[in-house]
Amino acid sequence: MKSINKVKNISLLILLLCSMLAFGQQKTVDSAVERKYFEFAGNQLVDIRKATPAQLQIIARKKRLQAISKDHFLFSIGENLGPAFQTMALRFQQNTSATVYEGLDWSWSGRNSLRRYLLDKDVNIEFADVSITPQNAKDYRYHVVTNDDTEIVGWTTPTNFKTTSDGKYAYAYFGSFAAQPNGYIRIELYNIHNYKRRDGIMVDWRPVKPLAVSVGLEYNDKNFPIDLLYKSIDGKTPPEKAKEAKNAWYQFNLGDSLVRLHVLPENYTYNYEFKIELIRNISGKTERLDLGTNNRVFFIYKEYWKQPGQYELILTPKLPRPGGTPVVYLKDKAVSYRFEVLPEKNPKHLFSSKQIALFGLLLCAVLGGIFGAVVTKLKKKNQQRVQDEQQQKELAKTQLASVRAQLNPHFMFNALAGIQNLMNKQQLEEANHYLNKFARLTRNVLDNKEQVSLTEEQALLTDYLEMEQQRFGFSFELKVNQGLDIHNIEIPAMLLQPFVENAVKHGIAAKEKNGHIAVAFEQREKDLILTIIDNGQGFDTAKNYEGLGLQLSKNRISLLNAIYQDSPLYLTMQANDKGTIITITLTQWL
């Protein structure tokens, strides 16, 4: 009897385990069935049963691109999922040992940020396009050019197609092209119905070269007060003399007239950037400074070499791998440039120290009795006046810094709102360009300099207007009066930017392509006139508005006048339904 009960218990246990297993399997099946309906549309996980047509289009495009990418073509799936037209793909000769780098972007007829790839070996390449199919090929034309002087494929319609390994997708194949030793090749493509939809790739086999430079000093001369003068301190430093230059020490003496070192690349177009480092050895202490990257003319200001010592400038090619990482520094192509800063030479004296001392004593003895009392009284009076003026200026500077601190985040929040707006519209390429210019603008804004040259102000305004132009499509122009030395004339930092920002936001943004802004720098005798004109809807200049930008800018000009009492600033505003004119006059500024 016990045996029968035992068997029954075992049977029940087995039945229970089977039921649990079956339930688990059913649950797993249900979960798997449910998961098949979920796909990523960009960075968003969506249920395809409820997805919008736009999301379904992104999902289908992603599957197509993933299938094509298995054919070992080089392109970014992320870039091609958005609205940006960057659909051309590149493939290298199989089993190649060449190293591939990303060069600097290039432009074609206003189409910026086109890709460039650098190869360190002569390997063949193939081009394709992931968006062209047999159905839409008639809408496209492409051609292939070598070294900007030989067209090896004239403008033609794509007629050759390949199919992905799974047999589901067809894409345009432009063919295989031989390497161009010490040269380059580019392919350009456009849509005949929409010229804005164009793309291109450049492949460059030219070897990476060291940055050959010539270096000179720029300095002031009282006989030429307007321009900086230049004097070479080394002649030229071509790559073939890099070893000789590395062992040489170019010397010069410090002096009050020295302003900066002028570093000029010599006769070569560099399609990549160089890391710039400065090693300085001062009184036995060695310090290494990172001065950023460049491949064109740049300056090293006196602030970096204002003390006597030994300095070494190192210029190293900086090349990122496809995708931006990792970044490779070709140290074997680096150029080292050495210079030694010597103490300032002693000025020549007309009299000896003993003669000057004796003359001073005699002069004091003669004049001391006559002017002693008067000097003492005037000194006390002047000290009190100087102290009062200094206190007023320090107070004004403190208040000015507070206003500037409010303007900076006000500008940055507006710019970030613009980036967010572009991203919400899925305009990823425009947002990327906007973000690049915003990064450069942010560095200038946070630099916190009291004054900047008109050149720097012009560059900041150009970056800002180009950034906003991407959002609203308006046109703009910056005019400089002929003969105005914009390199050496300085004005308070960010003086114009808040007014230009106000003109964009409240004046011409709503007009889009019909909007226009003109900024002008001109000279009237010794006055500097800065003008901002827009064709917006205008505003009541007598009314106090709640917005921060205009009010803060008015306050800032009032505080600046407390500091620059001999050269006051005047703000005038004219507006009607046809536009607004903002004029800032810096009197006795030139």
Could you explain the architecture of this structure?
This protein is α+β, with helices and mostly antiparallel strands. The protein has 9 helices and 30 strands. It has helices spanning 2-35, 53-69, 77-81, 242-246, 353-424, 428-446, 454-472, 497-508, 548-563; strands at 38-41, 44-47, 88-92, 100-102, 106-108, 111-119, 125-129, 140-146, 150-156, 161-163, 170-177, 184-191, 194-204, 213-221, 224-237, 250-253, 258-265, 273-282, 285-294, 298-301, 309-320, 327-329, 335-342, 451-453, 475-480, 490-492, 516-524, 527-534, 569-576, 579-586. Strands 4, 5, 6, 8, 9, 12 and 13 form a 7-stranded mixed beta sheet that branches. Strands 16, 18, 19, 21, 22 and 23 form a 6-stranded mixed beta sheet that branches. A 5-stranded mixed beta sheet has the order 25-27-28-30-29, with helices on one face. Mean pLDDT is 80; it is low at 236-243.
Topology (SSEs and partners):
Blueprint: H1 2-35, E1 38-41, E2 44-47, H2 53-69, H3 77-81, E3 88-92, E4 100-102, E5 106-108, E6 111-119, E7 125-129, E8 140-146, E9 150-156, E10 161-163, E11 170-177, E12 184-191, E13 194-204, E14 213-221, E15 224-237, H4 242-246, E16 250-253, E17 258-265, E18 273-282, E19 285-294, E20 298-301, E21 309-320, E22 327-329, E23 335-342, H5 353-424, H6 428-446, E24 451-453, H7 454-472, E25 475-480, E26 490-492, H8 497-508, E27 516-524, E28 527-534, H9 548-563, E29 569-576, E30 579-586
Parallel strand pairs: 6-13, 16-23, 25-27
Antiparallel strand pairs: 1-2, 3-7, 4-6, 5-6, 7-11, 8-9, 8-12, 10-11, 12-13, 14-15, 14-17, 17-20, 18-19, 18-21, 21-22, 21-23, 24-26, 27-28, 28-30, 29-30
Helix pairs in contact: 5-6, 5-9, 6-7, 7-8
